[in-house]
Amino acid sequence: MFIKMPDYDIYIENQGLKDLQGHIQSVYHGHVIYVITDEHVEKLYAGKLKEALPNFQLFFVVVKPGEHSKSFETYQQVIHELIEKKIKRDHLIIALGGGVVGDLAGFVSASLYRGIAFIQIPTTLLAMVDSSIGGKVGIDLPEGKNLVGAFYNPKFVYVDPTFLDTLEPRDYRNGLAEMIKAGLIGDKKLYHDLLDHEKVSEDEIIMAIQVKRSVVLLDPYDHKERMYLNFGHTYGHAIEKKFNYETYLHGEAVSYGMLLALELGVKLGETHQALYNEVKELLIKRNLVKEPLLKAEDFRDFIMNDKKNLKDGLHFILVSKPGEANIHILKVGEL
Ligand SMILES: NC(=O)c1ccc[n+]([C@@H]2O[C@H](COP(=O)([O-])OP(=O)(O)OC[C@H]3O[C@@H](n4cnc5c(N)ncnc54)[C@H](O)[C@@H]3O)[C@@H](O)[C@H]2O)c1
Asked: Could you say which of 35, 120, 173, 318 would form a disulfide bridge with 157 (CB–CB 3.0 to 4.6 Å)?
């Protein structure tokens, strides 16, 4: 099964990487591939990848797992290692890993020699439904996350849900939070399905990818509609920042953020209290938030002091019903 983006395909297959070599051969005629991955993923999957790609010579560049690898230092190390291993402009890079590897390897691919072809093989739930799609790649700075980057599309994205079998439960739930968000902003069936069970199906992964796809197609370069993906993220980013990106995983911070956004929707008469209650029960059950919940007033200053938020009024995403999001420009005092 595949989903078409304007410039590339997203394959969704669970056959143990069986067709991967064929897909690569349809976009790449060389024999050398550079695989950027992290230590966890290398240990689990380097062997499988080699087995699946017997016609290619693979060179691995392995970074430490975690957000710290989305740094200038690691970017530079990876570039040096690739050059040392004699990468050429017409070679191919594979990003094999979660969102950290995808963003870093994508940015390396976008910038080294002004662009080397790359493919995304996302191995976390978050990367499958979110970060590998839409072309945003980049790294963090000490001043903030994702401050240096580019829009750079892969040749294709290869989603194999069986990678999820080895994911730590907390990392799995991190992606689940983004799927719940996708349901709330763009697909009520997905949202209702996710109320029912924790382990997501391939169909649900496809539904979440379709939500991301439709928003990206409306606004490839993030000027307006892509903002819908920020539901829960205004507070979510403030929560992550206030706790130095240590206490909460992104999906956990976004889960608290979704509840705060729904609470604001209730206050503004946009959201039914019943929806807030239902989402709260779901996020508690899935271990994404705990009571007592975080309070809006503790993050207000963070949000108001963030210049990016105030350019022309704070654009805030509200959800009125599952699957229906809208942009609300907040007046001072409404937050
Ligand atoms: N580019 C975008 O549009 C976009 C969108 C959303 C998030 N992001 C970025 O994504 C990043 C977060 O991604 P993430 O949540 O995937 O985190 P991650 O890449 O750090 O992966 C989480 C952990 O899972 C491990 N792992 C990966 N695959 C595994 C597997 N199959 N089995 C066992 N362990 C595995 C990793 O080694 C890591 O320890 C953030 O940097 C965020 O900014 C980017």
From this structure: 120
In the chain, the domains with their CATH numbers are 2-166 (3.40.50.1970), 169-330 (1.20.1090.10)
**CB-based contact 97:135 (threshold 8 Å):** no
Tell how strand 32-38 and strand 57-63 pair up: parallel
| Ligand 1 atom 39: residue of nearest CA | 65
Tokens of 266: 């209730």
Give, for 99, the enclosing helix (H) or strand (E): helix 99-111
Question: Which of 69, 157, 171 has the most ligand 1 atoms within 8 A of CB, as the residue to mutate?
Answer: 171
- Residue of 43, 108, 126, 128 best suited for mutating to test ligand 1, as the one with most atoms within 8 Å of CB: 126
Distance 26 CA to ligand 1 centre (A): 27
The pLDDT tens digits for 232-288 are: 999 999 999 899 888 999 999 999 999 999 999 999 999 999 999 999 999 999 999
